[in-house]
Amino acid sequence: MELIKVDYNKCIKCGICVDICPSCILEMGEDGPVCNWDRGCMACGHCVAICPTAAMDNAHCQLAKQIPVPMPVLDSETAYNFLRMRRSIRNFKPQPVEEEKITKLLDIARYAPTAGNSQGLYYIVISDAETIRKIADLTAEWMQKEIEVNSPHSRYFSNILRTYHERKIDIIARNAPQLIFACARKLNLTGVSNCEQAWSYASLYAPTLGLGTTTAGFIQTCGISGYEPLVELLDIPKKQQIVGTLMVGYPKYKYQRLVERQHLKVEFR
Ligand SMILES: Cc1cc2nc3c(=O)[nH]c(=O)nc-3n(C[C@H](O)[C@H](O)[C@H](O)COP(=O)(O)O)c2cc1C
Fold first, then answer.
1. From the CA of 196, how far away is ligand 1's center (Å)?
2. C-alpha 30, offset from chain centre
3. Same-domain check for residues 194 and 243
4. 50 is in which domain, residue-wise?
5. 3-state helix, strand, coil in the chain (%, to 5)
6. If I label 59, which of 70, 75, 225, 249 is the partner at 20 to 30 A Cα–Cα?
7. What pTM was estimated for this model as a whole?
8. Looking at the structure, do residues 46 and 119 belong to the same domain, yes or no?
9. For position 13, which CATH number holds?
């Protein structure tokens, strides 16, 4: 199939597909949209998804594989409260999450936005307690090295390491039963940003599966830095880099209240 196929019998020449195409590869012709620059398509599927008469097909996002938008969409108050209910979960029940549920959690993350629709995040799920302990230890080692070169985070890291080493509290991995590492191709300059979006999707979806998550910030920063001992321990493929780490598990406690944030700061100009 050529990249874009238009059923001109169905097309009403509304021009919406031309308007919404992020790569501007469509133009309005006599009979409807035509595509003259098919190499720029980022396979986002907007043209197929928006067409009011299902006249548009795209080889990268075939019409036959797309489903109609399910109704009803959440009303704004329900959505607002749902979004506010998400909390970072740092206290987990010891039992690991079933692979099936983790797969569901990561599956929804595929729908998060990625730069240029690059997608392509690849996940490694660590469930072995001993390996998680080694990961936390290596992260602590990396933090110590950062302190030694006077990184701007030295003071903060020193406090964290005091808690970790002297008080023997796992402030790095929070005794999470599982850690999820996200990797992206080294050539993908936006892998870290893409991963942040993916974590948002996974974290917001997690409570619907009875799960809790928290970004493992120290571990992921260590991973993003490319700290060799961690990369080696995880056996990250050569062309991949770590772009994020998420703790996941069954929450030990249930939150009773929504907490307030700082005031909204916004300027309309
Ligand atoms: C980039 C990033 C890194 C984070 N790293 C950690 C971490 O290493 N350990 C931790 O316990 N929480 C971590 N958090 C969770 C934040 O502390 C938390 O989002 C914040 O305190 C607000 O609480 P809430 O998520 O429950 O609303 C991280 C969050 C983000 C966005």
1. 12
2. 42
3. yes
4. 4-65
5. 40, 15, 45
6. 70
7. 0.94
8. no
9. 3.30.70.20
